[in-house]
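ESCALATION

Customer reports they have been waiting on this structure for their group meeting. Please prioritize. Original submission:
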Amino acid sequence: MVTLAKHYGVPHILSRMRHPDFAQPLRLAGANHIISTVELGVSTMVNAIEYPQVESMMHFEQGQIEVLKLAIPNNCYVTGRSVAEIAQDSLFPTGSLIIGYQPHPHDDLTIPNGSTILEPGSTLLIVTKPGSLHQMIDFIEGCQS
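Update from on-call: job pushed to the front of the queue and completed.
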């Protein structure tokens, strides 16, 4: 299929790969992007085990950036605070950013601004570095005494 797509001048060719030995032949045939179904499945399972509170997670730039979807528990540190207050908190991981906000499961995901107030039970979409994942989860889930 890669060769056929290349023959017809398809500019971006995506290929699914089951075994890592096929990566180089697929690239030589013309595939621009190769997705390993095994690596994708294993990564999904590892994330579900290691970060059960994260609803979903995506890796970008060979794992240099993580985007995670995280629910805010009731009565936690971030509830009732604005995105600007949270971003200025010294415990908020450096280089992280809240890029999405969903107040309730039936609401659309929106792009928050500094004045957006986080409600209990809402969901956040956060960009962070892999080394900050645990710190971010601890920060968001930290409950008030």
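Sent to customer with the following note: Helices lie at 2-7, 23-29, 37-50, 83-88, 133-141.
Escalation resolved.
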